[in-house]
Specification:
The chain folds into two domains: about 180 residues, no CATH class; about 160 residues, 2-Layer Sandwich (Alpha-Beta Plaits), CATH 3.30.70.270. The N and C termini lie far apart (about 75 Å). A hairpin with a 4-residue loop joins strand 2 and strand 3. A five-stranded mixed beta sheet has the order 2-3-1-4-5, with helices on both faces. It is elongated and about 95 Å long. The relative contact order is 0.08. By secondary structure, it is of the alpha+beta class. It is built from 14 helices and five strands. The structure holds guanosine-5'-triphosphate (GTP). The site of guanosine-5'-triphosphate (GTP) has 16 residues, from strand 1, helix 10 and helix 11. It catalyses: 2 GTP = 3',3'-c-di-GMP + 2 diphosphate.
Length: about 350
């Protein structure tokens, strides 16, 4: 049943909270069982035994992902229990507050149209109960003192449950936002910035560069013969290599450096406050770290992994693309000159100077 309902399947945290609520509600009902015996209201006392049984079944149903059955049981329990509580000992018992707990839960557990229909039904039931108690006296009234105690107890439980639900909603929304932001800005495999986000970040960095004139170095790093690694050891090993390469690049550069997965096996690093010579030194550091790392395939074979890199420095007349293009040209030269090396884009600079 649950598998056919994408709304229910898409909010697993809600169903975790529903399980907790079942535990909490069952505990409260056990307390009520003894309380109403003491207060001389046996019907309400025994209602709690049925309630606990319903919560146990609902809890187990949630565990088996039978969410439809669970929500039906929880609904039935609260509606009957709240109704009986009000009819037997009066509106002043505060049992009706439990009905209000459904309002936020409805919107999380149902599609909008269903939630609105259920909300209208809930409102009708709540109002009908209220009006009924205008015309009839409670069927099993209890003394004013205990009635006040029951009211305060119910009010406190509803306060606690609302707080818990509100805390849950805020936590869920915050974590969903964080996840969305991460998905929108990072590459899932390596955890580095993705190309789109990197472009935004670098544009900001370059605006800063234009203001204060500090140098910015661009490093384009590309794994050599990566296709052969994939072909020989499989795509999964290729993925693991990419993750590890990203990790090593990160550790070898500074925290303020911006690093992205720019293409399949190509990485872009933008180093603020770094001239072309320092950029070259950083690229060399990365290249050596990757060269000396022990790259082992799952079968224990050693993988020979090297990278080639091209380095350029941002110039006042550049835009993002022209600076990257120069680093790319240097990278091509590294590949042409035999790979496993770092080249600078000096051609254009010489041309401009002459
Ligand atoms: N495992 C894995 N492979 C990828 C991924 N993205 C791109 N590739 C592979 O990277 C390889 C890149 O191959 P090429 O562009 O020929 O480059 P190369 O083999 O590294 O050769 P050179 O760059 O010339 O040294 C291709 O086989 C892609 O399938 C990825 O996310 N995971």
């Amino acid at each position: 049943m649950a598998a056919r309902n994408p709304v229910r399947e898409s909010r697993p945290q809600f169903w975790q909270v529903a399980k907790r609520c079942c535990q909490l509600a069952a505990t409260v009902d056990v307390a009520f069982f003894f309380l109403f015996h003491l207060l001389g209201s046996p019907i309400l006392a025994w209602v709690n035994v049925v309630s606990v049984a319903m919560y146990v079944v609902a809890y187990r149903a949630l565990g088996k992902k039978q969410n439809g059955l669970a929500i039906t049981l929880i609904w039935a329990e609260v509606i009957i229990h709240a109704g009986l509580g009000v009819v037997l000992i009066g509106w002043e018992s505060g049992f009706h507050y439990y009905l209000l707990m459904f309002i936020p839960a409805l919107f999380v557990s149902m599609r909008l149209r269903g939630a609105i229909a259920a909300l209208a039904g809930l409102w009708g039931y709540y109002v009908a109960l209220y009006l009924l108690m205008w015309f009839i006296e409670p069927l099993q009234p209890i003394a004013p003192g205990p009635l006040l105690g029951v009211y305060l107890f119910n009010l406190s439980v509803v306060f606690a449950m609302f707080s818990y639900l509100s805390f849950f909603y805020v936590t869920m929304v915050t974590s969903a936002n964080r996840k969305l932001r991460r998905m929108a800005t990072t590459d899932p495999l390596t955890g580095l910035f993705n190309r789109r986000h990197m472009t935004c970040l670098v544009e900001k960095e370059l605006a800063r560069f234009r203001r204060n004139g500090h140098p910015v170095a661009f490093l384009v790093l590309d794994i050599d013969h990566f296709k052969a690694i994939n072909d020989q050891y499989g795509h999964e090993t290729g993925d693991r290599v990419l993750e590890d390469v990203a990790g090593i690049i990160k550790t070898r550069l500074r925290t303020q450096d911006l690093i992205a997965r720019w293409g399949g096996e190509e990485f872009l690093a933008v180093l603020p406050d770094t001239g072309i010579q320092s950029g070259q030194a950083s690229a060399e550091r990365v290249r050596e770290a990757l060269l000396t790392h022990d790259w082992l395939a799952p079968n224990g074979e050693r993988i020979d992994l090297t990278i080639s890199a091209g380095v350029s420095e941002f110039r006042a007349e550049d835009d993002l693309n022209s600076a990257i293009n120069r680093a790319d040209r240097a990278l091509y030269r590294s590949k042409e000159l035999g790979r496993n090396r770092v080249e600078l884009e000096v051609v254009q600079e010489v041309a401009l100077q002459s």
